[in-house]
Amino acid sequence: MHSVVAEVRRGDFLESVHHGTVLATGPDGSEKVRIGDVDAPMYPRSSNKPLQALGMLRAGLDLDGPLLALACASHSGEDFHLEGVRAILASAGLSTDALRCTADLPIGEGALRDHLRKGGEPSPLTMNCSGKHAAMLATCVANSWDTATYLDPLHPLQVRLRETVEEVAGEKVAATGVDGCGAPLFAIGLRGLARSFGRLASAPEGTLEHRVVRAMNTHPEYVGGTGRDVTRLMRALPGAVAKDGAEGVYALGLPDGSAVSLKIADGSQRSRPVVMIAALRRLGVDVDGDATLAELATVPVLGHGERVGSIRATF
């Protein structure tokens, strides 16, 4: 199912490789890159969040701008992220006590240091998916749905979200699991994931799809955080929508409808950005003409704190 998509070189020595599956499609859906079985079901993890946010808007969620971007986020846990989560909950008359996501520490290095220095402990608020959970709760309040059971796969909210994923992906959900945050997780193929992001990014103004993309691309720091590759990627590509996910998943859509979806087979994150940039290059994106994209094209391998090699894509 998988092929080598990235190699780790320490000096001139090949130290490790990463296997994966990659699909890059043009505006008409034609395959520009296809590596591995792109139709095999997999869990998109947090790459599903823009689709879930779309489902919430369709169900009556009234969010836009940075707070809508936060609903799509795997945020770093910086102060502005936490303030945003509280604002979403307050708009629905709720407090952080309503959150049912797993208690966790911030995933951003700086945010984690600050949190621990202040004596902070794991909490649902600082969990990276708390923006999505706050938006789920606000959607429940807007529809007078029960807020205590919103994580149940049979809850009206989750039924709506599954229907949205299936519609936009153009395929049926193959399996339903439990994500790290406790929310239902819907399995689709990389082809369906790429199709979804291409449709989101190319949606006309005035649609709910475009509303999601505009919020994420205009406020990418709310989607990821300071220094995060997903934040930098969207800043470098106006009109694009991108979302990283656990277990080495990444998806991106461009305004012309082109898209990339990928999964690193061993679940590691370190090679994920470089594989994404290689796929964008195959789509004709001028990677070398943009400093951010060129920097993301390789990840340094360090020796005694100095760069002694790099992680590069193999295609």
Largest sheet: 8 strands, antiparallel
Number of helices: 12
What is the number of independent domains? 1
Determine the CATH topology.
Answer: Beta-lactamase
Classify the beta-strand content into a percent band. Answer: 15-25%
Shape: globular
Order of helices and strands: EEEHHHHHHEEHHHHEEEHHEE
Helices and strands: which structural class?
alpha+beta
Mean pLDDT: 98
The second-level CATH architecture is 3-Layer(aba) Sandwich
Question: How would you sum up this structure, described in words?
Answer:
- The structure is a single chain.
- The protein has 315 residues and is α+β, with helices and mostly antiparallel strands.
- The protein has a single domain, classed as 3-Layer(aba) Sandwich (Beta-lactamase), CATH 3.40.710.
- It is 37% helix and 20% strand.
- The chain is built from 12 helices and 10 strands.
- The strands form 2 sheets. Strands 1, 2, 3, 6, 7, 8, 9 and 10 form an 8-stranded antiparallel beta sheet that branches.
- A hairpin with a 2-residue loop joins strand 1 and strand 2.
- Helix 1 crosses helix 6.
- 50% of the residues are buried.
Question: Which properties best describe this structure?
Answer:
315 residues; alpha+beta; 8-stranded antiparallel beta sheet; two-stranded antiparallel sheet; globular; Asparaginase
Short summary of the structure?
By secondary structure, the protein is α+β, with helices and mostly antiparallel strands.
Write the layout of secondary structure elements.
Blueprint: E1 3-10, E2 13-25, E3 31-35, H1 49-58, H2 65-71, H3 79-91, H4 109-117, H5 130-142, H6 156-169, E4 175-178, E5 184-187, H7 190-201, H8 208-218, H9 220-223, H10 229-236, E6 241-245, E7 249-253, E8 259-264, H11 272-282, H12 291-296, E9 299-303, E10 306-313
Antiparallel strand pairs: 1-2, 1-10, 2-3, 2-8, 4-5, 6-7, 7-8, 9-10
Helix pairs in contact: 1-5, 1-6, 1-8, 2-5, 2-8, 3-5
